[in-house]
Amino acid sequence: MGGISDNVRGLALALSSSIFIGSSFIIKKKGLKKAGASGTRASKGGYSYLLEPWWWAGMLTMLVGEGANFAAYAYAPATLVTPLGALSIIFSAVLAHFILDESLHMFGVVGCVLCLVGSVTIVLHAPLEKDFESVMQVWYLATEPGFIIYTFLVLVLVVILIFWCVPRYGQTHMVVYIGICSLMGSLTVMGVKAVGLALKLSFSGSNQFIYFVTWFFTILVIAFCIMQLIYLNKALDTFNTAVVSPVYYVMFTTLTIVASIIMFKEWDSQNASQIMTELCGFVTILCGTLLLHKTRDMGGSPNISSSPGFHPSNREQGA
Which of the four, 16, 109, 152, 177, has the lowest number of CB atoms within 10 Å? Predict the structure, then answer.
């Protein structure tokens, strides 16, 4: 019964997290729009949104959601918690439709459903989370050759995106900003798992903060979160929220699971049928995201064209 009740608590926390995070996209977007009307927009390198109460309200909402998500990992396995982030996509897209006048076409609704179906498929067939007795075990996994190579590739790609792609394609190609957030996010989650494990073990009586690696992971999480926040703001201020949310979710979740598979070797305990089912879940989510992306202007041109991030060239160029 204890395990069941823990899973129920974890599920409730994950669901509440999706609601708060989905709402935060809308609240922050309102703050960005108000700040952009009276100062330099975030997409142009401005930080006037830091003086906007709506933006801070969105930040507070997101922090509550992230806190609930962090706590969910203490009660339920990551394979249950992580895919439920798809619910924040649906919640954000629906709110954007009614509050921000960013029209969501019927095909967009189908795209949201596909994202949800794919997430459920992954939940039902994902591998179980491993048990750890010390944060040092996570450090040993993080310093194995496979994950070191992955980390190096991620950092190289982030540098290329920031210094070469952002000046040239940041205003017309959404994947530039979202790519930076997602790549850094995959490393952030690995750090969050380590910090969460350290806190859980410390509260149970085994102090993990005597290890240097615990503080290293903590600093890494803070630094990477700040970088993600900056570029997510740029993406939200430039492109349609109903499209930013699902694309960010898919890229972030895909890269995070890839990083987790490399670091924790989760597929080693699964058979070919389970792995193929998970891959089908990924393909379903990708199809939903593509549908949302390609139909973002259908039936809502006036609304989208009046949004602060719209550029005529967006219709001809892929975001």
Answer: 152
Contacts 24+ apart (CB under 8 A), 141-149: 141/263, 141/264, 142/190, 142/194, 142/263, 144/263, 146/262, 146/263, 147/259, 147/262, 147/263
CA distance 8 to 27: 29
For every residue of 235-285, DSSP letters joined together read HHHHS-HHHHHHHHHHHHHHHHHHHHHHHH-GGGGS-HHHHHHHHHHHHHH
Is the per-residue pLDDT at 93 higher than 80?
Answer: no
CA distances from 291 to 166, 246, 317 (A): 25, 10, 16
How far is residue 157's CA from residue 179's CA, in Å, rounded to a whole number? 9
What the block records as the tokens of 284 is: 């379903």
pLDDT in tens, 194-221: 888 788 788 888 899 999 999 999 999 9
Question: Residue 204 has which token pair?
Answer: 């149970």
How many C-beta atoms surround the C-beta of residue 4 within 10 A? 8
Q: What are the C-alpha distances in Å from 192 to residues 32, 73, 102, 138, 294? A: 28, 10, 33, 11, 33
Q: Which two tokens stand for residue 256?
A: 């995070």
Q: Which of 53-62, 95-104, 105-114, 276-285 has the lowest mean pLDDT?
A: 95-104
pLDDT of the residue at 10:
73
pTM of the full structure: 0.71
The 10 Å CB-count burial string (b at 16+, else e) for 116-126 is bbbbebbbebb
- Rounded Cα distance, 216 and 195, in Å: 9
pLDDT average, residue stretch 135-156: 94
Calculate helix-pair angle for 2-38, 241-264, nearest 10 degrees: 140
Give whole-number Cα distances, 253 to 23, 183, 247, 300, in Å: 19, 10, 10, 28
